[in-house]
Amino acid sequence: MTRVGKTILAIYVSVYVIELIGERWMGIPIFHWLALNPISSGSFYLWQVVTHPFIHDPGAPIGFLIDCLVFYFFAGTIESALGTKGFLTLYVIAAIGGMVACLVFGSLTSFGVSCAGMMPSLLSLIVVFGLLTPESTILLMFVLPIKAKYISYGTVIVTALTFLAQTNAHGAYHLGGIGLAWLYFRRPTQWLNPDWWRWKYFSHRQKRHRSKFTVIDGKKKDQDDKPTIH
């Protein structure tokens, strides 16, 4: 891991330890104060927009450790590919996407829940890793070898399905982070560029013309055969 990754991980661990001490030993509702609550809940405060990515469920320490482990494996590769500035921008944008999706979904439905944690940014790192190195192999659960691109697709599919099945209460939070991070990574502003569309049309025509040709073996079987013209 780079210095930036180690710093982020140290902040997560420090905040979580303070949170556990405050919640479990002193009875201070830190999670309720700092997690992102729905606007209509009456517990929404403006500072939660900034604090929610650093707060994790105090009742799930094993889940928090798994998240830190996944961050450890993926953060360095993404930062090496995008640079420190690009990595931090992607990470923050994913958190913003999760925040917006959580607030909007909580306002439009009665299914709103408190949103917190690194998961939108973490899932975005996994998806982007699959886009950067699609053919690289990852040992899923440290046992099953699988290509990174399938991990990327599977992350999006599982998140979407569990959200639609209402088995993942934070599905909108996670999908919002993945979606906005993907838009940043792909930079679809090219869709507004006429030259890009002309290039895509030219490539499509070239591909169609290429499919009309067939490779013919021009080797002569004997001296009397006429040469094959290509």
Structural commentary:
- The structure is a single chain.
- The protein is mainly α.
- Helix content is 63%, strand content 3%.
- The protein has helices at residues 3-25, 30-34, 48-51, 61-108, 119-132, 148-164, 171-186, 194-211; strands at 137-140, 144-147.
- A two-stranded antiparallel ribbon has the order 1-2.
- A hairpin with a 3-residue loop joins strand 1 and strand 2.
- The chain is elongated and about 80 Å long.
- It starts with a helix and ends in a 19-residue tail after the last helix.
- The mean pLDDT is 84.
- The outline comes out as elongated
Quickly count the helices: 8
Q: How many domains would you count in the coordinates?
A: 1
So, the CATH homologous superfamily? Rhomboid-like
Radius of gyration: 24 Å
**Name of the CATH architecture:** Up-down Bundle
Q: What's the level 1 CATH class?
A: Mainly Alpha
- What's the rounded overall pLDDT mean? 84
Largest sheet: 2 strands, antiparallel
Task: List the SSEs and their pairings.
Blueprint (H helix, E strand, L loop, with lengths): L2 H23 L4 H5 L13 H4 L9 H48 L10 H14 L4 E4 L3 E4 H17 L6 H16 L7 H18 L19
Antiparallel strand pairs: 1-2
Helix pairs in contact: 1-4, 4-5, 4-7, 5-6, 5-7, 6-7
Core attributes:
63% helix; 2 strands; mainly alpha; 230 residues; single chain; two-stranded antiparallel ribbon; Rhomboid-like fold
Brief sketch in words of this structure:
Helix content is 63%, strand content 3%.
